[in-house]
Amino acid sequence: MNSTGTAxxxxxxxxxxLWLDHVQEWLTTVDHKRIGLMYIGxxxxxxxxxxxxxxxxxxxxxxPDNHFLSPEVFNCMFTMHGTTMVFFVGMPILFGFGNYxxxxxxxxxxxxxxxxxxxSFWISAFGGLLLYFSFLGGSGLYGAGSAPDVGWFxxxxxxxxxxSPGHSTDYWTLSILLSGIGxxxxxxxxxxxxFTMRCKGMTMTRLPLLCWLxxxxxxxxxxxxxxxxxxxxxxxxxxxxxxxxxxVQAGGSAVLWMHFFWIFGHPEVYILVLPAFAFANExxxxxxxxxxxxxxAMVAASVLIGFISxxxxxxxxxxxxxxxxxxxxxxxxxxxxxxPTGIKIFNWLATIWGGKIRFATPMLFSIGFLFQFLIAGxxxxxxxxxxFDWQLGNSYFVVAHFHYVLVGAILYMIFAAFYYWYxxxxxxxxxxKLGKWHFWLFTFGFHLTFDTMHIPGLLGMPRRxxxxxxxxxxxxxxxxxxxxxxxxxxxLLLFVWNMIQSYRTGKEAGPDPWxxxxxxxxxxxxxxxxxxxxxxxxxxxxxxxxxxHPESPDTHYE
Amino acid sequence: MSLVSLxxxxxxxxxxxxxxxxxxxxxxxxxxxxxxxxxxxxxxAHTIFGLSLLVIAIVTAIFLAVGGLLLYALIRFRxxxxxxxxxxRQIYGSNQxxxxxxxxxxxxxxxxxxxxxxxxxxxxxxxxxxxxxxVIVLGHQFWWExxxxxxxxxxxxxxxxxxxxxKAPRPTYLTMSSVDVDHSFWVPRLAGKMDLIxxxxxxxxxxPQTSGLYLGQCAQYCGMEHAKMLIRVxxxxxxxxxxxxxxxxxxxxxDPRVAAGKEIFLHTACVNCHTVRGTSAHGVFGPDLTxxxxxxxxxxxxxxxxxxxxxxxxxxxxxxxxxxLMPKMNLSPHDLxxxxxxxxxxx
Lengths: 558, 347
Ligand code: HEM
Ligand SMILES: [Cu+2]
Ligand SMILES: [Cu+2]
Hints:
The structure holds two protein chains of two kinds. By secondary structure, chain A is mainly α. Chain A has 16 helices and no strands. Chain A has a single domain (26-556), classed as Cytochrome c oxidase-like, subunit I domain (Cytochrome C Oxidase, Chain A, Up-down Bundle). Chain A has helices spanning 3-12, 19-28, 32-61, 71-105, 114-137, 168-196, 209-241, 254-288, 295-308, 323-352, 361-384, 386-392, 396-426, 432-458, 475-505, 543-548. The longest helix of chain A has 35 residues, at 71-105. Chain A is globular, with a radius of gyration of 24 Å. Chain B is of the alpha+beta class. Chain B has a five-stranded mixed sheet, with no helix packed on it. Chain B has a three-stranded mixed sheet with strand order 4-10-9. The longest helix of chain B is centred in the first third of the chain and has 34 residues, at 43-76. Chain B starts with 5 loop residues before the first helix and ends with a helix. In chain B, 42% of the residues are buried. Mean pLDDT of chain B is 90; it is low at 1-23. At the A-B interface, helix 4, helix 8, helix 9, helix 10 and helix 11 of A face helix 3, helix 4 and strand 9 of B. Residues 266, 269, 315-316 of chain A line the site of one copper (II) ion.
């Protein structure tokens, strides 16, 4: 932490640095901003990789009985795509933003444990590399499939040595185990940072909502990663030491794995979506020119979502034969979680209400988020009705539902966050013109793909099929989905181009380009190593509003 | 047996039951879709259909209300070019409205939950009538084994069950498990899906009201050929069904014209994996072939059961279903012809 001071002195008179010096600086950095950016860069690379995997699958599915990919390769593709997107895109990008923003927003100079922070990043990064190394090393001695092909939830006993010879499944297990260690480290770091390092005057009730949501997400990470890690260790023992936890041939239980996995898996989806809520909580008020509506209700709803989401996991198992009592219980629990989720949507709506909305690119993506998350929540309610899920579960309807959440809500808010905070990170604005192209093209592609995708599910198309017969009436719909996929890919390229181009030629941002209210905008863009020359002192939730409007500061109303 | 009629199912969706027929005809556009969940033909699927209409009506109403408000707010409160620079009025919240939009959703969910538990119990607690047909369904990578314990025979990949007249119902009860990995039995027009899990038995029932062929497929990823683990359910009239059972109970046809093929079959590895009742072939790893020629398709519905396809299958299963667990056996063209002819004789 106190190394920042000396770093400042050293950079006061910069000697010419070799590129190797830069590399060394990044490799050994413990600065939360650099680690944050590395998380984000790393996630973006994997986003492109997993995106290519998705396109390959979409090409294969664009026509019935297609031979573009063999079943072997297709099965590797959906496994790698899902695993990568959840563990090596979603988690790192959200932790990256958390790392970058949380200390700035609470007026701190770094995270509580900078070295743990670097360790967490590197071990997660190593996990991702290990997963992809399976393309080379996965065949083991048996020459079996070269990458994991068991699906991202890797149901037993498909993962047993008998059904999955070679080492591809071992790579999968170990890479998730490692990235989980990194996630727990970062979660711990965020919690301690937020609880102990807030600047003077920032009580928990004045904490920016973004930080509140990172508290909840971090606690969920903490609780959910335990069962996942335990399950991975048991699976390793099964595969290497001859134990029989999931070995059905020796009396083990396939259902046990499902419980372990989904006790992690459902909270995991909230671990991913809460940071998206966090971004929305910052961006929507600034572009509506109003404070967030119902701050205490928003905090309460977030904490409630955290708690309830720990008790709904078996809605992923409605077709496993839980019995009527189990099905009824998990239907009820799942329905209850949608109440605090609804509260959030209503509060965002009320924040917009009566404002003066500026449709800059960050706000456009946030608006996309609001509509799409609304729809995703409603298809979620359809799925929570156990008997309806007996039809919809494991069909393309579910795939459409969770992509609405993961892409339509989470990725949209990640895009919004990029357009909003990129000026802070690099001192230059992203091009608004390219940004609007990106938004409209991506939105068009998204709806073409994922609105359409609900229908084959209703017409009986199960997920994870490498091909399908022509007589089922799914062909046309799948073709449309593929076209939409390519449109989204083009939009994503525009976004990447925008980031590269604006880094050199973007408009100078200045410290506070959006006329915003939280502390990160009180320092220069990009912020210096030490973040704030003078430790800030705050008196309300919107310190910069108070400064800009001394005639009616928030302190009078909170 | 509380076989719920369509009427009582739609009673759960009170108020919208009148639009039921309309929606049904709307669903008919998808008549080119043989696995449409909105074209139910048996009570479990009907009941779910009724409930799903209620659910869809509710979520659509919520979408229109909330989405409409959102759209209105975005248009009404947009900043306009000529606006002054002043900030809008700062509003921090209101406890009354927070309570309002907590309580209303709770009330909606109570309704939804009550409708749901009713359907759960109607489906999962239905009393089994004495005349019900029992079939044991075993999932294999990547085909289905069907055992008829009371009738005393085993078959594969094409399930035959009797039509169940609503006035004198005769449902079929499927007792399901798996010999290897997880699978899931899903025939959308008849019922929701149910998983087949090793070391666990699950039960589901069907009472199709119209005879005909119903399609579905495995709905739990089970390995390389999960996509080609198709399901065919033949719903027969009582007479057809009785005749079919009668035929299946017979041992394999012993046709002297294909004796040479039979000889080769019995002296090839085939017998380690396949059973042909009435011969020395007792393998259980692959499908029972006793009445193979009575089936319309081979390899769990992947191709039509024609002599050419059959020959190709025996020559090289991977060419039709890559990754199936039947090996290529490098038979000579002569042996292939003979075995195919023998297989063709197994009516
Ligand atoms: C209103 C809130 C939500 C409800 C009521 C809900 C409900 C459900 C239900 C019942 C399922 C199980 C479907 C099945 O597999 O048969 C499901 C699946 C899924 N949901 Fe949601 N969900 C909600 C929000 C979310 C969020 C926030 C995310 C992600 C951030 C998400 C991601 C997923 C994923 C990834 C799956 C599929 C898991 C799989 O592979 O089986 N959902 N959802
Ligand atoms: Cu869930
Ligand atoms: Cu299967």
